[in-house]
Amino acid sequence: MINLMVAMPAEARPLIDHMRLKADSRPGPFNLYRNEQCRLLVTGMGQVAMAAGCGWMAGQGEASDDVWLNVGVAGHRSLALGELRVANRISDEQLDRHWYPPQLIDELRGEALRTVMEPSKDYPLSCLYDMEASAFVAICSRFCTSELVQVLKVVSDNQDHPLEHFDVKAAAGLIAHNAPAIASYAAALCELGRGYYQQSEIDGLAEIEQEILARWHFTSTRKTQLHGLLRRWFALAPAGQKPVPFELSACSDAAAFLQQLGRAVDQLPVTVDS
What we know:
- By secondary structure, the chain is an alpha/beta fold.
- The protein folds into two domains: about 1-195, Nucleoside phosphorylase domain (Rossmann fold); about 205-265, no CATH class.
- Helix content is about 35%, strand content about 20%.
- A five-stranded mixed β-barrel has the order 5-9-8-6-10.
- α1 packs across α4, α2 (about 45-60) runs parallel beside α3 and α6 packs parallel to α7 (about 255-265).
């Protein structure tokens, strides 16, 4: 299932219509829309809202084969309005951190993206500018492999059409124009996810996962995070490597274990078989 994370209702509405999603009637802190293949969450603008939405969605624990996609509008110094790009380098202005989502789908052109705290009006760098992507990638990459956490942005403003003249309602038209391409990319990402999750069971993974779950208390969100990190470790670690890269007794609780495993997984190189 694809988890489609969108900041503004104006960005979400064309995708809801194009994908024929229905409002979820269950009470919750966010507006959620869904069908059998997709869940779309309207998080609100900014990194805090996006991080909260991603954590809440992961905590629902409805699917073991989730992929994650953030869609929205973004500024750019020179790209034409309405251009659709996939973010191949995501930087956080405040934290000075960088992410490089592996690009295994060739449908769209890539572009660097910079997440800022306030809307950018002068476009100092030739890249996309938004206010949510770094939080989305930082959170969701803890739940599954980074190949399945992607960001799509539609250019909404540039130097010739600056942000102060942008009407938020125009976002709906820009997203609607690109809705077929966004849906196609989402389907390709889901297909990539199925190939990843439907691999034959990795020897030893289930056993070590059960041992870890029995050792400490894991919330629903942390169980999802644990499963994703273990799959990434078993998939990427060199042959013959220990089930986990450290002794379980070295960790005091579930949070400490996940933090240490996350650091180890992040240091493993990602390779793609030809």
